[in-house]
Structure formats: C-alpha cells, structure tokens
Design brief:
Chain A is an alpha/beta fold. In chain A, 49% of the residues lie in helices and 19% in strands. Chain B is α+β, with helices and mostly antiparallel strands. Chain B is built from 20 helices and 22 strands. In chain B, a hairpin with a 5-residue loop joins strand 2 and strand 3. The chains are: A alpha/beta, B alpha+beta. Chains A and B meet through helix 3 and helix 4 of A and helix 2 and helix 3 of B.
Amino acid sequence: MKTLKTLAMIGLLLVASLMSAGIAQSAEQQFAYLVSDLRIPFWDIMKRGIGSRAEALGYTVVFYSAENNAKRELELTARAIREKVDGIILSPTNSSAAVTILKLAKAAGIPVVIADIGADSGDYVSYIASDNREGSYQIGKVLAKALQARQWEKGSVGIITIPQKRINGQARTAGFMQAMDEAGIKGAGLRQQVDFSYQETYDFAKELIAANPDLRALWLQGSDRYQGALDAIAAAGKSDQILLICFDAEPEFLQLIPKGVLVGAAMQQPFLMGEEAVNTMDAHLKGQPVKLQQQLPILPISTENIAEMLPIIRRNVLGMNGK
Amino acid sequence: MRIMSGLLPSREHPGKSLYALLGGVIVAVVVAVLGVHAAYAYLSQRQQIIEEMKQNSALSLVTLQKNIIPLIEAYAINEYDKLLATEIELRQHFALIVTDLNMGKIRAEDAYISGKIRDAAGGIIDFNPHDPAHRQWLDGSFHSDTIPLVAPSGARLGSLSVYNTDGKVKQALNRILIENLVNTVFIALLLIVSLVFAIHRFLVRPLSQLAAVIGQTDRDGIPVSPIPSLAYREIAILTDTMNTMIQVISRSRDLLQKGHLRLQNILVGTNIGTWEWNVQTGETVFNERWAEMIGYTLAELQPVSIDTWLRFAHPDDLKASGERLEAHFSGQVGYYECEARMRHKEGHWVWVLDRGRVSTWTAEGKPLWMAGTHWDITERKQAEQTLKESESRQRAIIQNEPECIKIVDAQGRLTLMNPAGLAMIEADSLEHVAGRPVIGLIAPEYREAFVEMSKRVLCGESAQMEFEIIGLKGGRHWMETHAVPIQENGQRVQLAVTRDITERKQAEHVLQQQTDALARSNAELEQFAYAVSHDLRQPLRMVNSYIQLIELALADTLNDDTRRMMHFAVDGAKRMDQMLVSLLEYSRVGRKGEPFAPLSSRNGVDEALRFLAPVIREANATVRVSGDWPEVVASRDEFTRLWQNLIGNAVKYRVPDRAPEIDITVTPDADGWRFCVADNGIGIAPAQFDRLFKVFQRLVTREQYEGTGVGLAVAHKIVERHGGRIWVESSGAGLGCRFCFNWPRALTTAKDVSGSTGCACLNVT
C-alpha cells in the first residue's frame, strides 16, 4: 500500500511540474497525435491527457485516428507530414506500422514520440510505455494473496493473453508468472487472443476451466472482454470457485472490484501517459534531453486498495478529471 | 640325363620399372582427368550458379510477389520491408526493391520506392531511392529482374525488382574453385594412393613375385621353380600359363638335352668322327674325333676342306669312294658307304667306315651339303683278319682232329663233321651225310636218351652221353659225346665232340665183370666171416667149457706143466672167442646197423661218453668237447660205435701215471665236417700208420694193453661206409695222437639203406 501511495504521489508531482513548465511554452507550434483508434477508451483517455497537457503548454494538437486502418494511418501520416507538423505523438495501429511512420517522419524531419505501442524499429525521440512487467508482477501478487487467503494456492491459474509476439504481452506474462512462481502456484496454460472478441474470451475461459479441474483463477490480460470470462466461469458453475483478475480497467471495475466480482486489476494510466508524451515532445523541441525509453507505473488495484486509490484511478486511469 | 647347370643369380633388368611407369601414368591420368573434371566442374558450376542466381531471383520474386501484394494492399510497408530483408538475407541478393503505387498515391507521388540493399560492407540497409550511391549500386549490379505486382482484382500495385552482383558469383566461384581444387587434390591424392597401392598390391607385387620366381633361372635361363599360384584369377591364369610354358620349355629342353646328350654319348660311345661337306664348294666341317682317328687334333688340320680327306685317304680307296659317292648322288643308293684307309700321323693306316648322306640339294638337283661319319674300324678289320686266320687254323685243327667234331642243327640234322667223324660213321664224305638226321646213326636203344640229350643242349645245357651208333656200313661203335650249345646264324645248334670209346667200353666190360666177381667174392667172404665168427663161437665155447671141466676133473692129477698148458688152452680159446666177437662186430658193420638218418653229432658223442663213463672215471681222464656240432646223416648206432672206439682208444692207450686228457673237436671243412679226438697218450710212430686200421693189427702187445686189434678197423669201416675218411696224426711214440675223420655234409643212399645189403652208394651233393 505504501508503494502505491508513493507511485501516486510521483504521478501527481510529475503532472504538477509539467503543468507549471508548460505555461511558458509558445502556442505557435503544432503536434499531430496519430492514434490507432480513438473509439477505444484507452486511446481516448490518452488523447485527453495529450490535449490537456498540450493546451497547458500552448501547443496545438491535431488528432488523427486511423480507425485501426493501416491505409488511413498512412494517409493521416502523409497528411501530417504535408502539413508540416512540428512533432508527432504516435500510438500506432501496431509496432510494424510504426516503422513506416517513423521512416516517413524521419524523411520529413519530424520528431516522433511513441506512446504505449512501440515500434519494431526506427528512429524516434522517446518511447513511453507502461511498465507491463512490474505491473503484472504486482497484480500477480494480488492474486496470489487472494488465493492464499482462500487456501486455493494448490490450484492452478489459467491465462488468456494478448498476442505474445507483442512486447507488452510478453512482459505481462513474465511478470505475472514470476509472482505465481514465487507463491508456488502452478499455471494451467494460456490462450492467446486474436480478435479480442467476447466469444473468443468466453471460449478460451471455458477451455481452460474444462481442461483444468483444479483451476482456481483466470487472468485476463485485457479489460474490455472481462464479461466473457465471467460468463464462462458462471456457465461452469464455478463462480464461487474461480477468481478473475484483469489487466487495464473499465469504469465498471470501480464497482466490480469492491464487490469481489473481480479480484483486482492492473490499471495503466493513459491520461498520465498522454501528458507525459506531450511533456517529452515539448522538452525535445526545446532542445532538452529526454530519455529514449520511459516507463510509467501500473496500478495494482484490488479490493483492498481501490477505495484509497480511487482519485488517482479516476484521473490517470479513467481520465475523469482531465479534459 | 638332365644337365642342370645350377641356379643363376637374379638378373638386373635395366628396363623401366612397371611400378614407376604405372605410377606415373596413374598420376598423369588422375591429374589430367581430375584437372579437366575440375575445370569442367568449375565452368558448369559457374553456369549453374548464375542459373541458380537467376532461379533464385525468380523464386524470390515469385515468392515475394505472392506475399507482398496483400501487404501492399494492406499498406503494411514495414511488413513487406521485413519480407524483403528476410529474403535478401536468405537468398543473398544484392537488392530487393518494391515500387509501391498505392503508397505513392498516399504520398502523392508516382510511386513509393523502398527496399533493401547491401552496402559496401555487405550489410543490409534500407534502400533510399534518393541516394545517388544507392542508384549507382543498382546500376552496377550483375543481374536484375523485375516482376509486376498486381492485385487479385487486376489493379496494378507496383513492381518488385531483384538485383544481384557478380560479387556473390565470384565469391561462390572462388569458393567452388578452392573447393574443387582441394577436392581435386584430395581425390587425386586418394586416387593416386589407392591406385598405386592397388596396383602395387594386386598387380605389381604379384608380378614382382612372379618376376622374382622366374628370375631364378638355371644356366639356360629357364626358371628353376614353378611360379606359385596367386590369388587373383587373371594373375593365376598368367602364372598357370607361364608354369605350363615353363614346364613345356623345361621338358623340351630336357628332351633336347637328352637328345643332344644321347647323340653325344652315341658319338663318344661309338667313337665316331663326323663330317659335313659342301659338295659344291668343298667346304668341310670335321669334329675333333675325325682328326683324332688319324692322330691329329682338329687344329693341326686347319684349314680343312675336302682336300684334307683326299690328302689322308689311301689312294687305292679313293676310286671306290668316288664311285660310291656318284652312286649316291645319282640316287642309285640311298646312302654313301665306303670302307677306306687313312694315313695316321704315325704313318700306319687306319681303316674307317665312311658313311653319309646328302642332306640338302641345290635348286638344280645337285648335292649341296652332305653329312656323315667316320668310324674307326681298324680293330674290326684286324679282328676280321684275325678271325680269318683263326678260322683257318680251326679248320685245320678240325680237319685233322682224330675225334669226331660235328655240328647238328636244331632239327637234328648234321651240318658239319670233320673227316675223323666221317670215318666213325663210315661215311665217305660230308656231302654224303650233310643235312641228314643224326638220329638215324644212333642205335635204337639209345635214341630216346639221345633225343633227350639233344633237347637239353638246345636249351642251353652242356651234356655228355655214351651210346652206340650203327655206321653207314653197319659197323657198331661205342661213342662218348660231349655236346654244347653254340650260336650259328642266329640259331642255337649243337657242337659235339665225339670219340670212339669202343675199346674202352670193351675194357670196362671186362673190368665190370671182374668187379662183379670181386663183389660177389667179398659178399661171400663177409658172409663167410660172419658165419665163421658166429658159428665158430659155439664149438669154441664147448672147447673152452670142456677144457675147464677137464681141468676141474683132473685138478688133482695135473701138475704145474699140464695145468699151465690147460690154462694156455683156455686162454687161447677165450682169446679166440674175443677175436671171433671182434670179427663178428666188424662184419656186422653195414649189416646190422640202423638206417641212415639225420641226427645230432653231439648226441652221438655224448652217448658214447655215457657208455665210457666208468672207464673214464677209472682212468681219471679229462674229456673236453668243443666246437659247433652239426647235424649229420648217419646210422645212429654205428656213429656212436665210432666215437666209442676212438674215445675208448684214447683212454686205453694212455701213458702210465699220466691222466688222459682228451679233446674232442669238430670243425667245418670243404666237404663237411672234420671230427677229431686228440689225446696225450702213448702216441704212434708214423711208420705204423698204415697198419693201424687193419683188422687184428696191434701195435702194442696184449700184455701192455688188452685188445683184439679190431676197434680202429671197425671205425675205419664205419667212416668209409658213410663216405668219409679217417686218419691219424701223431708226432711219435709218447707224444699222443689225434684221430680225425671227415664226414660228408649230407648223405643220400643210392640204394636201400636199411642195411640189409650193406651196400650203399654215397654221393656228395
């Protein structure tokens, strides 16, 4: 708990310092935020963080949502380049597409700060991402604690993952498994999401439950399809025998976690990440050194700490306090 | 006889080494083949590399085309860039360039050109179409190919190009060159070593062994040992064939040597000189013997020619020689043969038998080369001369021989008879009886025996026969003939020498009549002696008995004189009886004895010693018997009696006060055995030897030694009856004596030896 408070304090201090620094920034310069799909809450929250911070610093931000379409993403990139923006904050549709964007931006001499989804290669100013490994490790410890509290530590834990070719997917799995290993809890196998659909999540959960009679928990490396997993557990008649824990957060989690429907969730801070992207670009444009890699903490929220962490969650995770 | 000249050392052959030659050929061939192969492989691989490069490029294009089109359509620039990076790395292209029309539209350009290219260090970098260096690199590429990129809908998406430099080709070719070189060298070495080893192991070594064996040759260069059979069929066929050839050559050589040796032996053995003469040129060749016959060495006669012959030949013989040569040259006779004389170095003449034949003729039919022999027949000529003289002498002897000399052929016909013989058979001339069977002259009662004798002679025996002939004029004559087989004209005939023995036969007839009369007289005398000795003893015993009865009856009336006279009468009667007994014993020899039979001579001696044992003990005599005692044929009791008499004599006639020492011995002699009894007795004066074996002959007085004087006569008679001879040896009175008799080795009786007749014919066999 002390650690969470420390993390929250760091975030708040960071926001405050950035906000104060941005006051003196000229508003003549223009950014472009190339994002994969603003229809996704996570990106929308981040957009708000970017917009909030850019406004504070006097920058104009043009938001380009590719609607998860590569062609559109490239077209928007080309448009941004043609409009000769001063910088691009990039949350690409995928790390491969980012490479082309970086290449085009580089050719046009436009600096790029990447937020959350990285690039397979290419030149950029900085890459800001959540600390997926540490966050997963912490949420793993939350789950271990919950299992131990129920004396279910002899049972196994199944994982429904995001694609493991993604770096953040690999980091999430590694951190979580470390916590399981340390607690002596065995894994029950994993299933990788492909289309991130409800049905897919439901089916994977059902398979894991059926294949592992001793299954005591499911960890979902995402948040939006948590209902599929819950429904599968309920369909198996094991609602009181199998715990569910998630990554990221949905607004309803603020009710589900306290109710114990969810044991907890590892919550990224997209609003904070958007603010940090603007701060980094600002620093770069001002000729200040920036770190090439930046990792933001993930909040391990459980039934026990959600009440305490709720202000930070509302702002940095859900963007409720931002613009 | 095979002449083996011994082993010769292996010869050094100056020729080239097959091993080295094959090795050189192998090296050259392997190097040439592999070199050509390497060059061909290099060129073909170069072409193959280029083809592979093109195929590789085409394959890359096709593969990428399939994968890139959807990526272009999906605007996944980086994805197809990654494919290009992977492909360029995988297939070692120089550059892969994509012209993306879709992306070009997005960027408001004709096309978006991207791709991967290798920098100077070979690293893969992003292609920058605006970089002149990149363009220059592409322009300098060795090979390029482009394929259009078309969407399934038919929309043109752009193109894909692949570029390859010859650097990779060169690198690959260098590698191939090095690999080929290394492989070629390695394979060449391997092949060379393998082939050289194989050739050495399977060809050269067997051939070397073969050469080593056949290199061990005798003086004629023929291998002395058979070539061992080798494991490899082809070599084995060679060795077997060579062995067969060697055997054939050896046999041929042996046969040739034998033939040559035989010829040499014949020449040496027959001591024949040889000559060869070129009739047309006069050139001649003589052997050493030719010259040696006339006392020269061939060197002394050099130079030789036909004139050499003419110079040494007897002038009187040249004509005959020339005539016979012409007869041969003209074909009248198949051979030239002539006996001629040649002057010896020492001046005398040597007879030679000169024989020969023309061996080659000229095309015109003239004699060219003629070869022949000279045979020294001087001795034969001399022998012929001697024979002629001898025959002349023999003829004279035969003609003048007083006895009949005749030759009768195998059919019993008379072929030759001298005048004396013709006279015996009362023939006037040889022609009168020649060719007539001689059996007709033989008196009929002898013909069968005569024919039998003739058969024996014709079978090779010598024979003798007495028979009577009836002369042509009727005269009967006794003949004694000695016939021997001789060869005449290749047939066995009888040569007989016959003498007229009519007078001798007549004398023998008279003598036989006398002998028969004497035998009858002897027999009667023996019968008389037996009868006297036997029959007289009875009245003598009556006389003796009655004299003793008279002496008893008149004992009181007899005075000393009459008593002494009576005693003389009794003593005389007793002595007479003893004499009669002895005489009877003597007469019984051959009359009452056991038949002849084989017996142990030692048993005879031992039996006699047993009979004499009391006497021997009384005399304290020592008797030693020695020698290897044979088995003899004798009448057993007479043989024992013989020993009793001789040993008894030795004991009896001892020197007073000297213990007798008697040695009884036997030794083999020419016809049988010699038995002796030697003593140390009183001995005998040699002058008395003749009397010793006669009946009643005594050399000492009766007062000195008892006896009748018949013992040695009996011994004599026994020995003679058995075909032996008895005698005595002594150095004189007091010096002992030795009686010996010899005994034939075996006896056969011509008549019954049962003793009934007392007459035995003894033959020594």
